[in-house]
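Researcher: I'm preparing a figure for a lab meeting and need a structural model of a single chain. I don't have an experimental structure, so a prediction will have to do for now. The sequence is pasted below. Please return the structure as tokens so I can convert it later.
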Amino acid sequence: MRDRDNLVDWAATGQPMPPVAHVRSPFKSRFGIPRQSGLVPSAIGWIEPCPPWDRMEAWAGIEEFTHLWLIWHVHDQPHQPVSSVRPPRLGGNVRIGVFASRAPARPNPLGLSLVRLRKLHAVDGRVRIEIGGLDLLDGTPILDIKPHIGFTDCPDGADSGFARQAPDRLPVDWSTLPSDRLTTLSDNQRAVITETLSLDPRPAFHDDPDRIYGCPLFGWDVRFRVRNGHVEVTDLVDDPPG
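Model: Understood. Here is the structure written out token by token.
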């Protein structure tokens, strides 16, 4: 139960929190988005700053850093905070407190991602920032951006609890995809799809080798199934914008 007397009412205090930018990403649906940033390094996107933060003076010096922290708004569905969650890394059947996880169903709809800064672009005096390793839905509002600092953000002796090791990956088999569909993909698109599906985006409790899943990426609904420890890409279906 929230203590309503202690809630921060940003509108009442005269301190609204508008986004400083929005993200353009290959991920068009929450299903399939990597559960942590950096797990799909080929996932390249853009930070598009909002005025007045799209002027170069706001970003001078940022290219000295290799990575950026993004603080973002979980905006794609009604916010439903919970006190405990079942992380996929624990098989989806072990409950832990929400504050011991990075689940999006938090008391406040905020997310945190670490992305690689690829390049700063300026077109007609306006800034666009190319980033990699995305775990963000296309159109996500960004509330703040801070540079990553290695000696404080990666402290010696840090322990990552149940997430000490990188997740296992499954081999991805493209041989089941019709060849005429395969040729429609660029090298980067194929890499993003491979890296995404290798993480097995299915719910942890699903284990039906005949079930076909759809993962919206780029302009396609990528159809796949998981059999005998392999991900089989079965089709690319045009996914019209919603």
